[in-house]
Specification:
five-stranded mixed β-sheet, about 40% helix, two-stranded antiparallel sheet, 10 helices, alpha+beta
Length: about 400
């Protein structure tokens, strides 16, 4: 991911980085692998609960026999009922149970359709209890031409020179991006457990959407183009574009940066924090090209999708209705000469982290923004709002 302006250590053919397939995220369906958010102890419970120790089970049986005595009925009026559909109840739940609730809040509003060679992701606007519903275009993505992929093969081959230097990073980044993001911001499962939980759900959303888009666009991996690429790691079985690592890293970076911005706490809300998070996401993305499993255009598409989903996640969590969609047209990923041979991934071409809120600059032919059309009422998500406020209070 070279930076044309020479910014930052994440880019340019002397300091690249890429994102690839998220092997361990395959189990995100069960949310079990969210415990791997950096072997962060408190999120380990996002998987299935550990079995009850057999000796303790037996002891509890005999213990009750010894102390319970004859059962005494309990009148209904002696027990206060909990309030229904109340966020106050979320405090009592384990992170794993809450993850299921947040997943429905997010996933039930996402729609998908593939038409005319375009993968379309939608947000469902709805006011509960009314008939007013409307799918709004959240993300539209077209895959590049075969000529564009062909143009970029030489760049991938050249990136292989960095493999020895980047091997440690590449292997470590096979897991989730959180370990690298928390080297920038002081995220820790004991110090900021709700921030970890918030980032875990943004990761879930990114994976939920990216895999469906990958399936629809069906882009071949570099190893399927040339026997000389010879990736340094196993190539994932799912499609190449958009890059899953880029999608997830930029989505989580966007969410974390927006969270710090919203706190207003010094020095966390300073622009340098946002710059570092975007550089980190870019480094993760580019390392996947170095590894030989992604084209630079994959990272460009993944970054756009990840930034879009990150802001979408933030707006829903802040109780603000989403109102914009983004488009990525891979067929236009070319330089002024009409070639993609020297066109590397540079997030700065279309994203400005320093605006409030940070967003798309839309300065390229292949990335654009579009307002929702004829919006319908949109009910906010109270559970996501609860999680956002809990995370915000940690800073």
């Amino acid at each position: 991911m070279a930076n044309s302006g020479g910014f930052g250590p994440e880019g340019s053919l002397g300091s690249l980085g890429s994102l690839g397939s998220l092997g361990s995220l395959g189990s995100l369906g069960s949310l079990g692998s969210l415990g791997s958010l950096g072997s962060l102890g408190s999120l380990g419970s996002l998987g299935s609960a550990p079995a009850n120790p057999p000796l303790l089970v037996q002891a509890l049986i005999t213990n009750r026999d010894g102390i319970a005595g004859s059962f005494e009925p309990v009148p209904a009026g002696d027990v206060d009922a909990d309030n229904q559909e109340s966020t106050a109840y979320l405090d009592r739940l384990s992170p794993g149970v809450r993850a299921s609730i947040f997943s429905l809040e997010l996933g039930s509003r996402i729609g998908f359709k593939f038409t005319g060679g375009e993968a379309n992701v939608y947000h469902l606007q709805t006011e509960y209890g009314t008939s007013q519903t409307k799918y709004q275009l959240l993300m539209a993505m077209k895959r590049p031409t075969q000529e564009i992929f062909s143009d970029q093969l030489t760049m991938i081959a050249n990136y292989a020179d960095l493999r020895a230097d980047r091997a440690g990073e590449i292997i470590s980044q096979l897991a989730t991006p959180l370990e690298f993001l928390r080297s920038i911001a002081f995220v820790d499962p004991d110090r900021t457990p709700f921030t970890v939980e918030l980032l875990g759900m943004s990761l879930w959303l990114a994976n939920y959407v990216e895999m469906r888009v990958k399936y629809a666009l069906a882009c071949k991996r570099p190893i399927e183009w040339s026997p000389q690429i010879q990736p340094m790691i196993w190539t994932p079985t799912h499609g190449s574009l958009p890059s899953g690592h880029a999608t997830e890293a930029f989505c989580m970076a966007q969410v974390l940066w927006r969270l710090l911005q919203e706190t207003g706490t010094e020095p966390y809300s300073g622009d340098l924090w946002g710059e570092m998070m975007m550089r980190q996401a870019a480094r993760i993305a580019i390392n996947r090209t170095v590894a030989g499993v992604h084209f630079p255009v994959d990272s460009a598409a993944g970054a756009v999708l990840g930034l879009n989903l990150g802001e979408y996640f933030v707006r829903r969590s802040m109780q603000n209705a989403p109102d914009k969609g983004w488009k990525f047209d891979g067929t236009l990923f070319k330089d002024a000469s009409g070639s993609a041979e020297g066109l590397d991934f540079d997030w700065r071409q279309y994203y400005d982290f320093a605006t409030s809120p940070p967003g798309l600059k839309a300065e390229t032919d292949w990335v654009s923004e579009e307002d929702f059309l004829n919006s319908a009422p949109d009910a906010p998500s109270q559970p996501l709002g609860w999680l956002w406020n809990k995370a915000k209070a940690e800073w």
